[in-house]
Amino acid sequence: MKQDTQKTVKVSEIFLSIQSEGRLVGVPSAFIRLAGCNLRCKWCDTAYSWDRRRGKSYPLAEILEQVRQYNCRHIVVTGGEPLLTDELDKLLELLSQTGKHITVETAATSYRNIKCDLISISPKLSNSAAPGDNNQKRLNIQAIAEFIRQHDYQLKFVVSSPDDIPEVEDILAKLPKLDRQKVMLMPMASTKAQYRQIALIVAQLCIDNNFRYCNRLHLELWGNRRGR
After folding, report:
1. What is the mean pLDDT of the chain?
2. Exposure pattern of 121-148 as b/e (b: 16+ CB <10 Å)?
3. How far is CA 177 from the centre of its chain?
4. How are strands ordered across the β-sheet holding 101-106?
5. Would residue 190 count as lying in a domain?
6. pLDDT (tens digit, 0 to 9) for every residue of the chain, 228 residues total?
7. Which letter does DSSP use for residue 52 in this model?
8. Which residue segment(s) compose the domain that 57 sits in?
9. Is residue 98 part of a domain?
């Protein structure tokens, strides 16, 4: 076990804040943001986590010790894309032994049998693609379906206009045994000003199409600020 805890992972940041999105919004949580991502979403507000080489190598033991110091019972493993981290399974196994609730946030472009209490899936719509980007790897229906089958889950879609709704519905229609109450629409924004501009539009889309509205509380409170 001691040898396992000396293994390292690339981390962009570890911090204490509140969960700002999804059904656990407002809950104090320890965030472990792993470095490295296989996507380049044009509206991403954590682009500093894309490049794994920019992350700091943390021994698993050091991560465990840091989150133990936080007075909260929720841990969020996010990114970047956590599924790209080779030692993710061991990290989640060790975190689960702390007795805390663990959320893993992923775009689910691939499937991996992982241990967590909540899988927070953010499938990427075509609105995420930069001009000229025809990346077809951003959406993996089979992986999303398997995560839904194996875990407690939530689906969060970043949207900006009614034009995004048909694409959302098309994805949902391909997912068997989906609980629509676990599907959320989230405003496309990376700054507080952008969020305020589009939040009411997305709220109306939720009303019109029977989706849950997904807040982005960190933007409301702190704007696009690291460690929050």
Report:
1. 91
2. bbbbbebbbeeeeeeeebbbeebbbbbb
3. 22
4. 56-59, 8-18, 28-34, 74-78, 101-106, 118-121, 153-159, 183-187, 212-213
5. yes
6. 555 677 899 999 999 999 999 999 999 999 999 999 999 888 888 888 999 888 899 999 999 999 999 989 999 999 999 999 999 999 999 999 999 999 999 999 999 999 999 999 999 999 988 765 655 578 999 999 999 999 999 999 999 999 999 999 999 999 988 999 999 999 998 888 888 899 999 999 999 999 999 998 888 888 777 766
7. G
8. 2-222
9. yes
Handedness of CA 105, 108, 109, 115 (dihedral sign): positive
- Residue linked to tokens 């999804």: 22
From CA 23, how far away is CA 182, in angstroms rounded? 9
| CATH number, residue 206 | 3.20.20.70
Q: How many domains does the chain have?
A: 1
Please give the single-letter amino acid code of residue 74: H
Per-residue pLDDT reduced to its tens digit, 138-157: 899 999 999 999 999 999 99
* Cα 172 to Cα 134, 143, 158, 168, 198, distances in angstroms: 22, 13, 14, 6, 23
> Which residue, chain included where needed, has tokens 């804040």?
17
Q: What is the pTM of this model?
A: 0.93
Give the Cα-Cα-Cα angle 197, 119, 56 (nearest 5 degrees): 80
Q: What is the pLDDT of residue 131?
A: 64
Task: Please check whether residue 228 lies inside any domain of the structure.
Answer: no
The answer to whether position 46 is within a domain reads yes
**Residues in contact with 136: Cβ distance below 8 Å, sequence separation at least 6, in sequence order:** none
Q: Which two tokens stand for residue 73?
A: 């019972």
